[in-house]
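Quick log. Single chain, no ligands specified.
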Amino acid sequence: MHQRCKSCRMPLPTGTYCPRCTDAHGLLIPFDALHAELTHEVMVHNEGMCRADAQDVARRLMARAPAWAKHPEVTAHRDPRSA
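-> predicted structure:
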């Protein structure tokens, strides 16, 4: 079984982070950069979804990843019922 990227949760054969989530030096890209990319992907895969809803979906996906679970952008929008 493959492990998952600790940033975006995509399947990963080895390592901690996938190439999408790292820069040219192998360092984790900033939260805002990945959030923007995931928001775009959500909008592409869900034609007609408004940006605000796509941003929320992207944030919820990132909240499930260990790299971002305690990030202020995630915790500020966390549903108190999910705690």
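The chain has a mean pLDDT of 89.
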